[in-house]
Amino acid sequence: MPFPFPRPALALVFALAAGAGPLTAITPTLSPAQIAGIQAQQAVRVAKAQAQMVQLSGQLNLGPGAGFVPRHVSTTPQGRTVVHFSQTYEGYRVWAGQAIAHVEPEGQVKTLTQGLKAGIALSSTQAKLSPEQAQAIALRNLAPRGEMKLAPKVEAVVFPTKFTGGLATRFDAAKGREVLDKDMSLFTKPSAEAYVLAYEVRTLLANKQDGHQEMSYIVDANTGAILRKWSELKMDAPAQGTGNSFYRGSVPLSTSSATDGTFSLVAQDRGTLPQPYFQQFGITQVGLTTCYGNIDMNAGLTGFEVYKGLNTTNSWGDGTIMPFAYDFSYVPDPNDWTRWWGATNLEFSADGLFAWLQNAQAPNGETTAVDAHYGLSTTWDFYRNVFGRNGIDDQGTSTFGVVHAIDANWFGIYPMYDNAYWAPWYFGMVFGDGTEGTPWAEGSYGMKALTEIDVTGHELTHGVTEYSAGLIYSEQSGGINEATSDILGKMVQAYADGGTQGASIPSFPTGDLTKWEVARHSVNPAMGPLRYMYKPSLDHASADGWYDGIELIDVHFSSGPVNRFYFFLTSGASSNPSSLSYSPYYPAGMNGIGNDKAAHLYYKALTEYMPSDADYLAARTATISAAQDLFGPGSPEELAVMQAWSAVNVGLAPGQAPRPTVTFPVINGAGSFLDANAVPTGILKKVQIFPTSTPVKISVNVENSANTAVDFTTPSWHGYAPAGTIQPDGTWTTPNWPYYEDLLNVKASSQADASQFAMNRVLLVDLDCDLDNEIDALDLGTTAMSWSKPGSGFQTPHESARIAGGWDWDLVFFTQAFTNGFPVK
Fold this sequence. Notes:
The chain is of the alpha+beta class. It has 15 helices and 38 strands. The strands form 10 sheets. Strands 1, 15, 16, 17, 21, 22, 23, 26 and 27 form a 9-stranded mixed sheet that branches. Strands 2, 3, 4, 5, 6, 9, 10 and 11 form an 8-stranded mixed sheet that branches. Strands 14-13-12-18 form a 4-stranded mixed sheet, covered by helices on one side. α7 packs parallel to α9. The protein starts with a strand and ends with a helix.
């Protein structure tokens, strides 16, 4: 049965110590019988942890209506029961409220409560709007053009209004930085209450008109205002087959055989619970499954079909990637620029109801499926054999992957995209075919099929993170989320390189840095890999270490410090400044502990200690706790963790003197309009807003150094006007740019230590609302009166001076810019 099929969100949502010995845990691993005995008492142990959390409610200021619902429960090899609780209030789940409880084998309960939300009070616990009304509000914003195959999921929640959405940003690849995202921005007035009753509405689109989208909304249950929105993207008898893969040569495949003598890419030994997305259509599918994309020609729905019913040899693929199924000479309408590139070549079912990419079922089409199936199976085995994890959610739920996915829209069928992604809605993942060889990927650009094993491990690890720490996908926790997938994806690769046997992870060959390059073989060599874990800044976008403002960059780039931390932890750091593994933050260098110890340590930190809103300091604390659990306080492994974090500028190693610290001051603090209404929350808290063509002064702080002088970078030109020069004392005459909807990067580096710097954004506002080429009090007055009282007859400011059609956003921007440009003496 073909299944409707959801489209990708944003970009790819994805240390060598010689002679490192096997993992030696201070806390001994219990026997299977002992573990089974503890698991048999799981309900009692969870109830005990739950009762202790309730007892702590008073001292944590959670209020009499506080409660805790287990979200995920697991048992470690040492017999510890780890319970992730969702916080509730008056029976409603508190959005982003989470606690972690550890129940030790002997029954002692320890709690981690950093993620809890305190001081909750609701004016009313009765919603004025029904779930159906909230759903309708979300769908009006979503504005689907095609059929919605599955109904949205709606849940009443208590929403902390500090997470209210507002001005959103996105990464602009052409500009190489974050820009304002009007489509995802919300201009909702802030609530005076810290918490409100709301509905979380999760939606899925998978059709020709909309492609694949998974959008979620928070709708105020009393006012109907949209408070936040975001994208989530995000059989027969067993048999043993052989695959001829593109990336790893000949590989074993766990398959299934049918009574008609054909085989399918279904690994029945990897998954015990039915696949949840299949089950919604009345199909019970158990086992890890690989599919190919198709399209329903009548309904216009993109979907997928299992590789089954055609292969009679159980030998899959020919080791080559199929030529792109595209006829570049076909021009159906030379007057329509959208059709100039030709047309996709499809094959059709006998009844003409379904179509798929030409050659998707041929041997060279199977090659990509071989890499995907092997990667999915190896990742499953990695988590099961190394960590004792039963699948992505640790419950044995079956998953699947789709190759040759079809992305259809009004302009035709475009199966190529440089992306692979984990799709939470249907508990599966999608592999793009890449754009290499297409006209829109000329020269050195474009990727091959995104089925390389570290990419597969990366994406499935997003699922593991979702069902353990649940790291929020923004700011520093988002960077940790991405790094976690890079880290454990690389460990899947190391496990595969070692033959996928046993419970230990071999280290990569000493000195072979290419092993630490993400998607090295998928990307055109002229582009380089997606990320360099040993020195992230080689991609000219990622950070090598923490700095004030790192949360402002895309999470794929803010992952850099955590990736490099892990490389140092496994492989060590050099003391040679010319080495790619040298760190200016820890110039003495350090020894690594190898892949196996580092992986166990990091996995324990992820699944037992990291809160959902962890920042880098919280990740440091989590990994130190994990090192103490596994190897003991004061152990060489704990020291290595501290040294590795120090080497990426997160905390200090024992004996280190404090470093100079450069920070920008908080301008829009907690509770301010811009802090509460930006997405992610707080992204504008340090943004300094200035008028154009005016002398101003940028503020910056330097601590831990007698020398407080800094050097500023000059913002880049915009092609038609110079940005001017920022002097060391922060004075700057802003350029005369007739717009504002752009965030300009500013960097301040310590003159005492150039490795210490901070990044900030400034926003320029054109205050000349009356267009007289002068900026004066009249401009601010005109703005305030015309936006505060629509239709008042006052002149409306010109369009370049507006972002939200007036109202609160514009007033705040203009007020702050005027104040900064003309401060009271």
